[in-house]
Amino acid sequence: MPVNVISEKDRESFTRHLQKSYRILALCGAGLSASSGLPTFRGAGGLWRNHDAVSLATPEAFDEDPALVWRFYSFRRHMALNAKPNPAHYALAELARRRSEFITLTQNVDGLSPRANHPRSQLHLLHGSLFDVKCTTFDCNYLEKDNFTDPIVPALVIPKESSDPLPSATDKTGADASTSMAAAMKGSQADKNEKEADISNAAVPVPEIAVDDLPKCPECKTGMLRPGVVWFGEALPGDTMNAVDKFVHAEGAKIDLMLVIGTSAKVYPAAGYTHTARAQGARVAVFNMDEEDGRKGLTTRDWFFHGDAGVILPDLLKPIIGDISALNSSST
Q1: Whole-number CA gyration radius for the chain
Q2: Distance between CA atoms of residues 27 and 127, nearest Å
Q3: How far apart (Å, rounded) are the C-alpha atoms in residues 207 and 155?
Q4: Measured between alpha carbons, how far is 175 from 227 in angstroms, rounded to an integer?
């Protein structure tokens, strides 16, 4: 089938099952936010300033160069704050309001699901959030949620594209050249509407950041703050995992439907939830732009919907959630 096109057979069978499904589990990955325009920095070519983005998402990288890691995460915070939730985020939020026994597990840290007003009690952030910060000092438990300050400290501001000083074709006194040089040196002060520099490109120069200028803990006064995301090698949040396991393994209750959106769900614990749902008799619907990746491991009882979740998901959930276009148009 072409991208974003749903066969009538699949639409009808999915709708029939959806309408009789009450215990629903959604597992979401980067593909959920694709049509919001956020870069994933994953897979082939996932470089940021010539660094493998995955290598920056480790405690070791932060210990070695906290300024580099903070610049990377500050950039991601900025990008996420300038993106908007797409129709798929709103569709899942509305489904949560219509189905009290529906929960969403998201691997995304971009904050778009909360900004779509997804009920918090039905949304579980497996990998934390870009907008949570916590102290790195061992005996300090400081944690701040929903810190949307951008940049979080002045040193992490994204510079503007600077103008190059231009030689004058007529003035021979040097006055025009001095004016041009001064304007170039002022940078963002000269024009508030100047375009931001693409600091993900290593060819774009950025100022050095002193460790003392990075975010500091307001509680212990000595520790450095770090992004509140789960880095490679770290355990997933215990309270989140306990809540999800309680839902998945609820005594006397089976999962009716599982939605796998924008993720391959091949890595545990995500893969385990898919297997558990199937073992309970649930049918699985996969939404993915990558057909080869998305179809792996599917059974004859599953559905595969090829395309943008922001287009397909609201369409297929419409029998339950109705038309949510008004929510999308009023979003900020």
Answers
A1: 23
A2: 12
A3: 9
A4: 48
pTM of the model: 0.86
275 carries an active-site annotation: no
Neighbours of 79 (CB within 10 A): 17
Q: Are 217 and 189 in contact (CB under 8 A)?
A: no
Secondary structure of residue 106 in the 3-state scheme: strand
Return d(Cα 78, Cα 259) in angstroms, integer: 29
- How far is Cα 299 from Cα 53, in angstroms, rounded to an integer? 34
Residues 6 or more apart in contact with residue 7 via CB below 8 angstroms: 1
Selected catalytic residue, list 78, 89, 127, 306? 127
pLDDT tens for 217-250 read: 999 999 999 999 999 999 999 999 999 999 999 9
| 113-129 confidence digits (pLDDT tens) | 999 999 999 999 999 99
Which of 304, 307, 330 lies closest to 9, judged by CA? 304
Burial class of residue 24, CB neighbours in 10 A (0-12, 13-18, 19+): buried
